[in-house]
Amino acid sequence: MAGALADQEVFVLTDNSAFEVAYYKGHSTSKKLSDIVFRLYKAQRDGGMILHILHISGKRMKARV
């Protein structure tokens, strides 16, 4: 399945704002988070896809009672 994501847009929704900031900044002070960001940029480049990271507040995901 090489190239399965070529010319595709992938949306990653997260409730972790630090991850979103690190992705668009390109790095983080956390080595583990920087490694994840690097791997995503590499996957985007090698796979020929467009990657979007969107922060969704965890409060908005909770069911209203």
Describe this structure in words.
This protein is of the alpha+beta class and 65 residues long. It has one domain. The chain contains three helices and two strands, in the order E-H-H-E-H. A two-stranded parallel sheet has the order 1-2.
Secondary structure topology:
Layout: E1 9-14, H1 17-25, H2 31-47, E2 50-55, H3 58-61
Parallel strand pairs: 1-2
How would you sum up this structure in a few lines?
This protein has three helices and two strands; from the N terminus they run βααβα. The chain is of the alpha+beta class and 65 residues long.
Measured by DSSP, the beta-strand proportion falls in 15-25%
The largest β sheet comes out as: 2 strands, parallel
Query: How big is the Rg?
Result: 14 Å
Name the assembly state: single chain
Number of helices: 3
| Helix fraction bin | 40-55%
Shape: flat
What is the number of domains?
1
Average residue pLDDT: 87
Q: Whole-Å distance between the termini? A: 44 Å
| String of helices and strands | EHHEH
Biggest sheet: strand arrangement: 1-2
